[in-house]
Amino acid sequence: MSTSKGAWFKQWRFGTICCVVAVLPAALIWHLSYLQVMPGQEKGHDFLQAQGQARTLREQKINAYRGVITDRNGELLAVSTPVVSIAVNPQVIAPNDIVRLAKALNLSAKDLTKKLQRFSNKQFMYVARQLPPHEAANATQLKIRGVIAQREYQRYYPAGEVAAHLVGFTNIDDIGQEGMELALDNHLAGAPGAQRVIKDLKGNIVKDLGVVRSASPGGDVALSIDLRLQYLAYRELKLAMSVQKAKSGSIVMLDVTTGEVLAMVNQPSYNPNDRANIKPNQTRNRAMTDVIEPGSTVKPFTVMAALETGRYTPESIINTNPGFVRVGRKTFIDPRNYGEIDLGTVIQKSSQVGISKLALDLPQNVVRTMFERLGFGQSTGTGFPGESLGVLPSRSKWHPIETATLAFGYGLTVTPLQLAQAYVTVANSGQTRPISLLKQDEIPAATQVVDAKVADQIAVMLKRVTERGGTATRAQTSAYLTAGKTGTAHKVGENGYADDKYVATFAGMAPANDPRVVTVVVINEPTSGHYYGGEAAAPVFASVTDSSLRLLNVPPNNSQHAEGVKQVARR
Amino acid sequence: MSALFLNTHSALNHADWKVRLARLDWYLLTVVLALMSFGLVMILSASIDLAAHSYKDPWFFFKRHALYLCVALVGAIMIFSLPSQAWNRLGIVFLIIGIALLVAVLIPGVGKMVNGSRRWLGVGPFSLQASEAAKFCFIVFFASFLSRRTFEFKNGWSAFFKLLVILGAFVILLLLEPDFGSSVVLCITAGAMMFIAGVPVLRFVFLALLAVVGLAFMAVASPYRWQRLVTFLDPWADQFSSGYQLVQSLIAFGRGEWFGLGLGNSLQKLFFLPEAHTDFIFSIVAEEFGLIGALVLVACFVILVWRILLLAFKAYKQEAFFASYCAMGVAMLFSAQAFINMGVASGLLPTKGLTLPFVSSGGSSLLVCTALIALVLRLGWELNDE
Question: Of A77, A151, A424, B126, whose Cβ has the fewest other Cβ atoms within 10 Å?
Fold first, then answer.
């Protein structure tokens, strides 16, 4: 080789070729180092890696645990359980794997193959959603290529149909659809977390880079309802529905001192855990979404308006002779001629004639203003989705017939909850509070909307309704003295008010001398013959109130009741 | 030049064998075997997911390449067994074979159309890339022609024009396929061989200019080549259409950094980079082994080319001109092909469909490259017999 060294230079042609050939790898090396390791290059490795990550690095959602919904005592009403959804990438899964997968999930291999063919141009298809973890494990254990397991949460409602309307439900993607699940969705949902993974071009996860952001669970919600009261209200309502063969019904129970809803049940209801066959009419929270004409249940408020004017006292006498009154072209009749009666008796007997005469004697708008102050035609402040406001008509000039009908509860609509709220004002010496479906840590400030003395006078009158001689003796309970008012409203049919369709209502409070709860019972279209509020709704009120007060540890005041009965007897 | 035939008589004694074995260029052989083994591993790594997806057999490309490798090695032994004088004498036959192959591939029905190019000849279950075989034929013929007519084309025009006509015929046939990359490689190879053979400098410069102008015109005239040129200058402008492959390849280089992601850890091979196991296997090498791995691979080719250039020079000194020109042709073919392939993958050169010798998956290329190396080994083996 040493001899050839000198010859290289003589052979310049070889030298030239060698130089040219040597330049090539040198250029390549310079270019590669620029691409791969030189720092600070505009399109160097930092840029290239970022571009690569943009094509491969993906964030996967980690579903957040949805907050639980409980009653006021912490009893579970809605709870999330971990489940697993099985999906496949139709472009990856092998035909014989489809059969294995179908077998593991107890599905028809034929159907699954067909479905996969339909989605053959997609990269994601659900096979089975929300399986219990042990069932999903049958499929994931096979480690089939292209099968994706997603951890999700399924909502379970332990109270089932009892609290279904209030609690509502979520859809399969864990998003609130109805009720409080919808109203408080943001609070309950929490924030999903993220997991960083590297995916290839076909969407397969190549590498798991770990959790970037852990899912933060949603907040819990304590509703104001007491599940025990809810259960017994539901039981009594369901019983009444079947006995009376009614179309629908609602019970609302409010806490007099806090404005919280203690129970709110409706019929018909549904099982939120199995919604395959539910009909829309089952899902309405009728106590808040449906309006009724309140009928006679608003008569105490008309009297209250009269007392507040100062022109009447409880002892004022109304002459109801001869048992009917003509207003415009209409005639209103009492069942019999009550003669000259005081205001308390007007309420006790629910006298159409008495109320009409009273209302026509009052200045215009006094009754309407009273209704408005009690919350009719306005939101109760619960924020419940789909809550109705009802209609409280507003007129510049009131015809006598309009004045009279409004006074005894026609021509306006209210929700059962609004009616209950108005009765709370009476039970609470004229003070009103915003209604709450959530458990209140502090009792909200009350507003005095009616003179306390007047409200108390009405409360006293209401006691007489359940006493002997009243329209709702069946609202009385053996243990507690109750007070309240019946209502029997004709329903509107195709040709005005229907003669044979009624809404039976009872709104009342108990114990009568120091009310703890206000309960409104609405029975819509009872068909078994007893359609009066005092017959259809009052007994339901009595049994619900009696059991509820016992559960709330309210001492019975049976003796007072007995005394009252004696007094009435002496009269 | 006493031993024209490889004799395997039982009479050979032990010392004889030692001398004979020492004559072999072990450096070259080692480098080639190393490249072959590395290629086999890289093909498996780069194709495993594609093969599993497309052929339901992760080993599909590996098995195919291994089979080709066996065939190539058997072929190499056969070629090595032939004395080089035989190739020299058969020069004109190779010219005819080469031209015939390139013409045959253009005939519809005989040549198979793949991706818009007619490059493949179906031979039973196998298919042969005509241009690869033609390269081998061209080098052998050209070396033979140059070595026998040295005086003529140094001093006269007729032989020079004959050379031009023959080269032109090959180039035009290749461009008709079209196979622009192979014609560039062939021009470089032929140019270097003529240069070494002693074509006067002015004539050579004229020829080189002609080639450059011609190829440049070809590049500009054809819309898809022009598109490739524009894309190569800024692949990021068309990163989801014409620049897609180059962008994916560049990302592979960027990921590699110094030491790479490790064997088997490439992400770009997961369907992102098309042709990851064939023309763009260098990107996967750079991604999995980093700059260091890429440099080692470049160094292997430098050693390979250097050994063959040394042989060419040694043969020239011994006035074994056929061996010298042949070796020079092979050296230039390998350096041009390897450089263009690596340059294309890393975005240094516009996109060409050229394989990386011994490393890319591709049967024809492997067979021809192995045959060329076997030829060179035989030439060197004869030469050292002083």
Answer: A151
